[in-house]
Amino acid sequence: MRAVAAERDGKLVAVGGLAFQPDDTVAAFLILASGERGAPGFKLALHKAGLRMMEDARRLGIRRLAATAEHNNPAAEPWLARLGFERAGTGTDSAWIWRSTR
User: What's this model's pTM, rounded to 2 decimal places?
Assistant: First the structure.
């Protein structure tokens, strides 16, 4: 696992990264503390961290990442799409797949 954490005012507000599964699947993940989505500057900082994680994946030679979108967060799917993920399936539990272009 490779992960980064974000803190504000000494409190943990987010953890995200890459989880390497035994079957060679690599999953991208993000866990946010409740109430953090509306914090000033949070969306931009989160997006920049996501872009850095995608670049880390390329640098590590990862060719494919899997993720799911939180179904009760309307910003989740558009954000995954901005990071380069594509929907792979239908319904609320569909997977999102990112493929390296290098």
Answer: 0.82
Per residue in 37-69, pLDDT tens? 666 677 888 889 899 999 999 999 998 999 988
Q: Where are the beta strands (DSSP E) in 33-102?
A: 64-68, 86-88, 95-99
CATH number of the 2-99 domain: 3.40.630.30
- Measured CA to CA, the distance from residue 50 to residue 80 in angstroms comes to 9
Given a contact cutoff of 8 angstroms between Cβ atoms, the answer to whether 68 and 19 are in contact is no
Residue 53 in contact with residue 18, Cβ under 8 Å?
yes
Which residues, other chains included, contact 19 with Cβ-Cβ below 8 Å and sequence gap of 6+? 1, 26, 27, 28, 29
**Burial group, residue 22, by CB count within 10 angstroms (0-12, 13-18, 19+):** exposed
Domain-by-domain residue ranges, the chain?
Answer: 2-99
